[in-house]
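Progress against Task 2.4 (sequence-to-structure conversion) is shown through the following example record, which the project officer requested during the mid-term review.
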Amino acid sequence: MAVPSFKEDHISATIIRWVSCTPKGKVILNPTLIKAPKGSIEYVIIHELCHLVHHNHTRAFYALQETIMPDWKERLEHSLVQKGLLNK
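Structure tokens generated for the chain above:
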């Protein structure tokens, strides 16, 4: 079976990085994030701000995120359902 080949620009266009946080604490937002629902935008920003304190996805990270945004799981799930990435 042959392995399909993909152009690098095609792959990067399909994988969207909404936001990133640099090791120096700079949060970089993708301009297309503004098209997302308000709850999704809030979730993404809170998530990245939590990375300024915890640079990984440990229990402490999620505890902080839950303290700031107790409904983060529902917001994330709602976003995935809206995008058709999760059936509910």
